[in-house]
Amino acid sequence: MSKIQEIATAIESGKVKLIEGLVKEALEAGEDPNEILNTGMIGAMGNVGAKFQANEIFVPEMLVAAKTMKKGVEILKPHLAGDSVGAKGKYIIGTVQGDLHDIGKNLVALMIESAGFEVIDLGVDVPAEKFVESIKANPDCKVVGASALLTTTMDSLKNTVKAIIDAGCKSQVKIMVGGAPITQAFADEVGADAYTPDAGAAAVKAVELAS
Ligand code: B1M
Questions:
Q1: First-to-last CA distance in the chain?
Q2: Hey, whose CA ends up nearest to atom 88 of ligand 1?
Q3: How many Å apart are CA 54 and CA 30, to the nearest integer?
Q4: What mean pLDDT, rounded, does the chain reach?
Q5: Residue 38: pLDDT band by 50, 70, 90 thresholds?
Q6: Which of 3, 74, 87, 94 is most buried by its number of CB atoms within 10 A?
Q7: Hey, whose CA ends up nearest to atom 24 of ligand 1?
């Protein structure tokens, strides 16, 4: 089994204690950090989701897989870093109210930071007003990103974008949205400036919007 496959298996089976060593071994063996992230880690979480949907695993197993992935990403983070932090300005990000998923949002934050932004991470279950408060408290911030992972929190994302627009913040910030159920059509409908399907594309788009 390849090192990347071992990482994927460890995440799928929630081997929290093994992941740190496996990621270090893969890096030492010369595996590409982006390949470890995309194939080993994100791919594994996709399989976890499919098993959950098929009732083969339940919430506790999903939780431990998520914990394993987070720990693996911590080891990988320095190897994914790019431009100097903060050079491109500030980027506010959060997962919308009612939604506790943060792995995707954290990856977007990581890539955005790697692209040279100072990231202000509001966390998960973030009320629309908190996004607005943070934008107003950081007048030098030019881009804000909101993430939603559940079809049931798409409305919350819609409300977040609306709250930012209604508060008059559109003259200050561009709004980016993303998450598994989000589409370009949804982004257009709610009035967001950009939708990107993954973290890498989000970083490229953030640079474009900030310049
Ligand atoms: Co949940 N969950 N979950 N879950 N969970 C999903 C999302 C689900 C698809 C699983 C399934 O049924 N197949 C399903 C949603 C179904 C739906 O809405 N249609 C689901 C469900 C139902 C639930 C609960 C309701 C389960 C329950 O309690 N009965 C519950 C809801 C809790 C809540 O939020 N209120 C729940 C809970 C959980 C855990 C807490 C156990 C755990 C989350 C732990 C954590 O995040 N700290 C969890 C997990 C791990 C998952 C799956 C398995 C994995 C999510 C993930 O991390 N994916 C997920 C199934 C799946 O995704 N296949 C599932 C990997 C991550 C890298 O991808 O988040 O999509 P993703 O992020 C991508 C892109 O979407 C994009 O870039 C990222 C990286 O490239 N992106 C952006 C994300 N944000 C972006 C922002 C941008 C741009 C791009 O710009 C700003």
A1: 44
A2: 178
A3: 35
A4: 94
A5: confident
A6: 94
A7: 59
